[in-house]
Amino acid sequence: KPVFAIVGDSIGIKFNASSIANSWAGKLTTDLKALKGDGGSGFRGMAHAGYAGGTFLSGFWDQYATDDKVTLSGSAWVNSTSAPFAFSGPGATMGATSTVGSTASFRVAGNTISIYYLGVTTTGGTFTVTVDGVATGGTINVGSRASDAPAKSTITTTAGTGMHTVVVTLASGGLNLFGVSGENSTGAVVNNFCKGGLSATTMNTGTLAGADWNGGVDYPADVIIYALGINDLATTDTTASQVADHVRK
Questions:
Q1: CB under 8 Å to 245, separation ≥6 — which residues?
Q2: Which residues contact 147 (CB under 8 A, 6 or more apart)?
Q3: d(CA 190, CA 232)
Q4: Which of 48, 104, 187, 235 could disulfide-link to 38, CB 3.0 to 4.6 Å?
Q5: Which of 169, 166, 173, 143 shows the shortest CA–CA distance to 74?
Q6: Tens digits of per-residue pLDDT, 203-244?
Q7: How does pLDDT run across 28-48, given as a tens digit for each residue?
Q8: Contact at 8 Å (CB) between 197 and 142?
Q9: What is the DSSP secondary-structure string of the chain?
Q10: Contacts of 207 (CB under 8 A, 6+ apart)
Q11: Mean pLDDT, residues 3-11 taken together
């Protein structure tokens, strides 16, 4: 099945569109599904979540339609700043919690559901998952923050290929949660790995440039679309050659 990845800033999320479906990325998804079949909703990240610890995980949560939001419990979630893998594929969007019982609720479509995560400390933690209110997948061990790549647990649900509510609950320890994807076995899949405010400079810092940005080993793509507003290109890029260099990377 063809896999597409959109990487970039608020332009790539849905800036000012009334819903994900009405964003340019959503329109692209609709057209690709018409050509290649429905591969599911693809990736939904924590950049679609609201206030966490008094701050936005994304600056655009208030623009989302109800079914587009990632709903967080309380104020236990915070922006995770401790991970060097922050801008690698699914890791571009993330939130962290060490409060047992914290939940994050996603709306995704597909009969195969994948959760992208990593520990926040060397001791790791555990979490549980419900799909449409039914406990699925048992207790999942987060593991320690031992690498620069998000871990993934995949659950095949018998609830069908339509839209599902997936709730991730921290059971012990801590959790860096990047997002959840919904997929079917065939059809086009469009994964949105964008987060508001990301810049070309940030993307290409150190070893994070290049292949990592298509998901790398975490989630390879057949086609990669870079979506950056000129404001985020211009944050630290002051010449045309700098812009070109960062886009090329």
A1: none
A2: 85, 118
A3: 23
A4: 187
A5: 169
A6: 665 444 444 455 556 678 899 888 877 776 666 666 778 777
A7: 999 999 999 999 999 998 888
A8: no
A9: --EEEEEESHHHHTTT-SSSTTSHHHHHHHHHHHHH-B---EEEEGGGB-EETTEESSTTGGG--GGGPBEE-TT--EE--S-TTTTSGGGGS-EEE-STT-EEEEEEESSEEEEEEE-SSTT-EEEEEEETTEE-S-PEE---S-SSS-EEEEEE-SS-SSEEEEEEEEEEE-EEEEEEEEE-SSSBEEEE---TT--HHHHTSGGGSGGGGGTTTTS--SEEEEE--HHHHTTT--SHHHHHHHHH-
A10: 148
A11: 85
Amino acid at 47: A
What's at 149, amino acid-wise? A
